[in-house]
Amino acid sequence: MPQLPRRAAHRGPTxxxxxxxxxxxxxxxxxxxxxxxxxxxxxxxxxxxLSAALNGNPPPASAGVRAPDGAEARxxxxxxAALADxxxxxxxxxAKRRGQARPSAQPEQTEAAVDYAAFRHRYLTTQQTMAMExxxxxxxxxxxxxxxxxxxxxxxxxDAVMERVVGAREQNLLANVPTMLEAHFxxxxxxxxxxxxxxxxxxxxxxxxxQSVLLAELEIRFEPVEGLLAALRAG
Length: 235
What we know:
This protein is 70% helix and 0% strand. It is elongated and about 65 Å long. With 235 residues, it is an all-alpha fold.
């Protein structure tokens, strides 16, 4: 099938670069520093909560039994692998999932009947699963940090505030991704309409692209987890 024109390289996270290439939209490079951008996201109640977490006295260390060494890292690896496997499975053609037999419907009939609404629903459902699993993981990591030194307990408090503040902003931004992918979906369909090739090739390409975008989103969502895990290892 014809290849879409390649865009100039874009600096930034993999997710931003992928969306810029797939949607033919240039993401503007921000000139503002991270602290400046963060200050624009914080309301006055958020600023008070963050200040209290940074400057207040952390709660005393938990008396609970600390998880065995390496347990948190294994927990993180398990959650990430499960989410990545779910994305990979969801991005595969239905006939290839879990060893299913190939359906009897003709490829061209399946292609003609396909609608983006199913992909949008699938993307949003995967986002919800990622958000829930990663949020629960962060809670467990914060609990482990709170059972350590006071400095680690303070970090746990800061992460709780940041998850609420930055997490809300992150969810609003990431909610736009399925809409952006719809334009890519339609462009692939139209580009392939007059081209010779295997029926449904464009749909296979879209599934691969959506899978790549979801994996890149998983990478971004997991960054706070990696930070908490690094703190645990250092502590």
